[in-house]
Write a structure and sequence with these properties.
10 helices, about 290 residues, mainly alpha
Length: about 290
């Protein structure tokens, strides 16, 4: 993967993470705990008991590691799309857009490749975000140490099946509406402007999270299994118990927050990535 994509992915991912982490914390708590009556109640209780700092629990670990996961996502997506383009185009067709089917396929591939990087990071983030009282985990490093001691290496990948069912198709949906919206808002033959990138990134985020939220709920509950939350024997057991006790609507917990958070976070992420790539690419050509 190009080094510039690694740097651009790191910075853009960190910017997006900072913008969306407070709402992500509220979403995780609503999905994994039943003590809150709704979004406002969760926000008030979090601020009352933990202060402003409570909304940023678990953020340091993803910020430090988002470089790798974002580089894998954007790098594998670009490489897969290039490969698919070469297999479908003749040497005289390079000015044409990539087929949207190729965009979706490359996006799914990027979702698959980043799983082994994202799964442990997301697990630690969720457990730290859900910790409202007590000091079972003193920080990201201590959280990893406790998980390894209690469950071994496999414990770091708890909930990975649900994560795969969420991320593989949803990363296809992530890049698909982004490319489609950019093309709709950009004159033929021109590079997408900042406004087009912002809107396309926001739309991509909302579409993706609207589809991802049901499996996101299951993933979060499986990740908390053994970490202070209810213990589930597996994916199907979690789904069955959740539906029996809370109804089908349980899979839409956090949907509103995900949608509200997704637009600005992904708009900023895509704009930051595109601007950084342009700046670094242009400077390397001077």
């Amino acid at each position: 993967m190009p080094f510039v994509e690694f740097i651009a992915g790191w910075i853009s991912g960190a910017v997006g993470l900072f913008v969306g982490h407070p709402l992500d914390t509220v979403k995780v708590r609503l999905q994994t705990q039943s003590v809150y009556r709704g979004i406002f109640d969760c926000v008030v209780k979090t601020y009352t008991h933990e202060g402003f700092h409570g909304f940023f629990k678990g953020m340091s670990f993803p910020v430090l590691s988002v470089a790798l996961s974002n580089a894998v996502v954007f790098g594998s997506y670009s490489n897969a799309l290039d490969y698919l383009d070469q297999s479908h185009r003749s040497s005289s067709d390079h000015s044409k857009h990539s087929p949207l089917t190729a965009v979706f396929t490359a996006g799914c591939f990027s979702g698959l490749t980043q799983l082994f990087v994202t799964a442990p990071i997301d697990l630690v983030k969720v457990r730290l975000q859900s910790q409202t009282t007590g000091n079972k985990y003193r920080g990201p490093t201590h959280c990893v140490a406790v998980i390894l001691r209690e469950d071994g290496v496999k414990g770091l990948f708890r909930g990975m099946g649900a994560l795969a069912l969420r991320d593989v198709p949803c990363y296809g949906l992530y890049f698909l509406p982004y490319e489609f919206t950019c093309r709709m808002l950009t004159e033929k033959g021109k590079r997408p402007g900042n406004d087009a990138v912002l809107v396309a990134g926001g739309v991509a985020g909302v579409v993706t999270w609207a589809c991802a939220t049901p499996m996101d709920v299951v993933k979060a509950r499986l990740q908390m299994s053994g970490g202070g939350g209810r213990v589930y024997s597996g994916l199907l057991h979690c789904i069955t118990v959740s539906v029996r006790e809370e109804g089908v609507r349980v899979f839409f917990k956090g949907l509103l927050l995900n949608s509200v958070r997704a637009f600005p976070v992904n708009a900023v992420t895509f704009l930051s990535f595109e601007m950084l790539m342009r700046a670094m690419t242009d400077s390397s050509q001077d």
